[in-house]
Amino acid sequence: MRSKDSKTIEDVKDTRVWEDALSKVLARIDTTARSLEGGFPHYADTDTGRWTVSENGDWTGGFWSGMLWLAHHITSDERYRQWARHWTELLRPRASSETVFRGFLFYYGAALGDVLCADDLARNVGIEGARGLATLFNERAGIIPLGRAAEEATSVGESEANVDGMQSSALLTWAAERSHERRLREIAARHALTNLKVFVRRDHSVVQSASIDTATGRVLRTYTHKGIRDDSTWTRAQAWALLGATVDAIWLPEERPTLLAAARDLADWWLSHLPDDFVAYWDFDAPREPSTARDTSGTAIATAALLKLSAYSEDKAEGARYRRAAESSAGALVSRYLTPTFFADKRPPGMLTQGCYNYRLGLATNNELIWGSYYLFEALCVLAGRLGPIEI
């Protein structure tokens, strides 16, 4: 394993790079909003730009609404707000769906509308989603399990949990502040800290999933159901843990020191294992060969998280290191994986290519993924100075 200081971190300071990339992503948002029929964008063919949609939002629909709320925030263009309100209202029925992924659906799909745009509809829908999510909490285990309607998991129900759901604590704490329901905050704190205990290994790598004895709360086993092996470090598991720790730290000030200490360890592991070109392969244990799939979506998640961690760093040198690492990954994504606006290129501009959804199942292994697009968009907004790194 390389030292985390052995890699040269590029320094990208010209905000014109980020503004140019933002214009491409905004163009992609526009074409997507005008072309959607019958569902939420899920993943897209990067040769044609055509989206495979989910009728009810699956686990990813909130990222689409989140992009629209963010677009309104940075442009003040009213059409983005109207589009965001439309898609947020369509998410409302999911408040009663039994899945931990309501954390994604309603934090990005609704809470962002309140935080960034002070939208009453978004606030009400987000609180409904948080209240529904809280009903899944397992008091004995101190965690919110996947639930019977968790779309992407191979094993679901009250006995299975995974680190993807750690970020749910942000939705619950935001809702607790808005609704003055202390119970939501209590659940949020326990869920976040239990995720760190269950899924973060001693070397600060992350295992994705766990089976839990619902009667006692005891962890029976851990495994990685989407990685190359059950004991591997799947790229998005590491990224989700890093993202969960940094986002949850925004909303849980009492637990913030613990969350940020864990985030630094998770970030340092990520950076010491990241390829020299700053874009992760789909699994950290996958062979590092030209034919091995990358996962730009996992890289985008970690990039957004590194920007938050940088803003929280009291040590200026440490903060600068995380910021430069985020800039290097964002620069690599923008320069090599974001489709251009060249006339000769028939692909729609602003697509983040080479996202790897589920390699084990052969599902969308080289595609545009809506969550990857969201996190790249968020990171670009921060890098361009349009969004504070710890606003959301």
Task: List descriptors.
51% helix, 392 residues, three-stranded antiparallel beta sheet, mainly alpha, 6 strands
Structural class: mainly alpha
Q: Tell how many strands the DSSP assignment holds.
A: 6
Helix content: 40-55%
Average pLDDT works out at 94
Number of helices: 12
Could you characterize what this model shows?
There is one protein chain. By secondary structure, the chain is mainly alpha-helical. The protein has a domain at 136-262. 51% of the residues lie in helices and 6% in strands. It contains twelve helices and six strands. It has helices spanning 15-35, 61-75, 78-91, 102-117, 120-134, 168-179, 182-199, 235-251, 256-273, 296-312, 316-336, 370-383; strands at residues 40-44, 51-54, 160-162, 209-212, 219-223, 368-369. The strands form two sheets. It has a three-stranded antiparallel β-sheet with strand order 2-1-6. A hairpin with a 6-residue loop joins strand 4 (209-212) and strand 5 (219-223). The longest helix has 21 residues, at 15-35. The chain is globular.
